[in-house]
Structures are given as structure tokens and as C-alpha cells.
Sequence to fold (287 residues):
Amino acid sequence: PFIKNAFPIDTQHGRQSQYGYYSAYLSLIASQLGFAHWIADDAIAEYPAPYDVGGYVLRLQGPFHKVFATCQGAHLEIDTNADFAYDATGLGRVHFRGAPTELALSTPIVKNPNFITVSDPSPKNVAIGPGWTTQDGNTRFLADRALDDDTAEVTIFEENRSKTIFSVTYHNLDEITSIVERYEISQNHILIDSEIQGPSSLNIYQFPALRQNGQDMAVIDVQDQTCVVDFAGHKLSITFLTPGSLRLENLTAPNRNGVYDVLRFETHNSKISLEITTSPSSNTPQI
Fold:
């Protein structure tokens, strides 16, 4: 399937609601691969792509409102002003070299998707990122932020082959002053510091945890402040370094690539720190 998931074709999971039928897209990619074979020149040597080399941070502004960052095989994509038919605001893609793309996250999760899902859509927008409780008791999430103009600020601290460090600051959040998300990327390791600046009675951080991709099941283990997702020969570990409580929410959250549970971390600290790592595993239960 053109949307690169393992769900049975008859479920249509991930297909655009009004177009994107497999027959058309599979014919398209078959013709493109055929032309590529005809014009390929094997005398041209293969060289590393920018993703292979790293580290760097790339900011796209205007209608694209994206931030890309990579280092030593770890790659992030952030949407700073999402289109809610497809994306949620915040960290929506985390890839590690050699690991399944859906293991951490390949696209955000939206409550009103413009594509078909095998289960009911998520009751809320979900990206990897913070939320807060207002003085009147309502809960808000960065994932729901959308403005006419993208006012997020990106600051780059370090870009090299061993480490990439940068921050994204979000303004115009109504009840609170701003959110500062600081990212540090190195080999198989991502450290995130998320600080909410302004009045909030309780701070929250949400993180999708893969349940299944249509073919393989994940094993999700939550212990204290760590969640381990064991899937298709790889383990993803999410550890919250700030004192607080961690649990799985009672909801189902599908995107184009799979069906997820949602981790919810709560603390009264204004700053939440977490680290994300990967390692090999031997566990691969199938549906």
C-alpha cells in the first residue's frame, strides 16, 4: 500500500477519505520504479545522504511550518502550527535508524482525520508534547495549538556529528506565557526538556505508545516512570526524569501507520524532562 502500513488492504486503513485508491497508487509507483531502473547508472557511486551524516536542524516557515533535526541515525520532525486534518502541533515523528518507523511515531494522531482508520478515530489530537491545567480546571494541550501565523521560535545550540541540540518556543497560548521544548539528539538517544512558563496547576506530557501495526502486536510495559514498548525486534524506552506519575489513558488512538495507546505523565513541576532510547529485542508477537 502507498501509505506503508501492514494493515490488510480490505480495511483501507490510512487511505484518504475521497481518493488514494490502491489500484491507482500501486500503478504509479510501479511505473516510477520501472523508469528508475531504465535510467539508473550503476557507475555512480553511492554516498551518504544528509540524514546519514548529520547533525543538523532545518526550519521551514510559511505554509510548511516544520522543523527537522537529525544526528547519528536519530531523526525528529516537529509541526509548529498543524493542519488538524492530518497533523497535531508538536513532536510528531521520531525515527531511529534500523527500527520500525512506527515504533516511536511516524505521524501525529488527529481526532478528525481526513483518512480512513481501522478503529474509531482518537477522541483528541496527540503529538509527543506537553499539556497543562488552567486555573478553572480545564486541560489544554500543545497538540491543539493552531494560529493564522506561525510564531514559534527555533534556537540552535549545537550541530555536529556527535550531538544536535536545539529548542522550539511556542507563544500565544492564551492562559500561559509560553512553552519551551529543548531537544538533545545523539546516537540512539533523545533527551527532551519541556518547560511551561505561566500559571498552571498541573502539567502533563503525552506520548503515543504503539499497540499494533496491522500485522505485529507490541508489548507495552509501564513501571514507575518508565514505559517500554517491545515491538518487531526492537525496544523503545521512554523514561520521565521529573518526579510525577505515569499511566496509560483509556483510549485508542490510530494514525496512518498503526493503532496506539497514549501515555500520560502528570507533575506539579513546571519543567518535564524525559529520555527516549532504543535497543534490540527478540519479541515479535503477531496478530
User: Anything to note?
Assistant: The mean pLDDT is 92. Helices lie at 22-39, 50-53.
